[in-house]
Amino acid sequence: MALKQLDHVRWLLDKDFKAGMRVTGLIYGDSYIIQKLEKEGALEQIANVACLPGILKHSYAMPDVHWGYGFPIGGVAAFSMDDGIISPGGVGYDISCGVRVMLTFLDQDEVKPHIDELTAAIFTKVPCGVGSKGAIKIGESDLLDVLANGALWAVKKGYGTKEDLECIEESGRLPHANASYVSKKALERGKPQLGTLGSGNHFLEIQVIDEIYDENVARRFGLNLGQVTVMIHCGSRGLGHQVCDDYIKVMLRAMTKYGIKVPDRQLCCAPLKSQEAREYLGAMQAAANYALANREIIGHMVRDVFLRFFPKAELKLLYDVSHNMAHIEKHELDGIIMDVCVHRKGATRAFPPDHPSLPEKYRPVGQPVIIPGSMGTESYILVGTKRGMEECFASTCHGAGRVLSRKAAMKSEDADTVLKRLEQKGIKVMADQMGTIREEIPEAYKDVSRVVDVVEKAGISRKVARLRPLAVIKG
Question: Per the UniProt record, which residue ranges are transmembrane (predicted)?
Answer without folding.
Answer: none
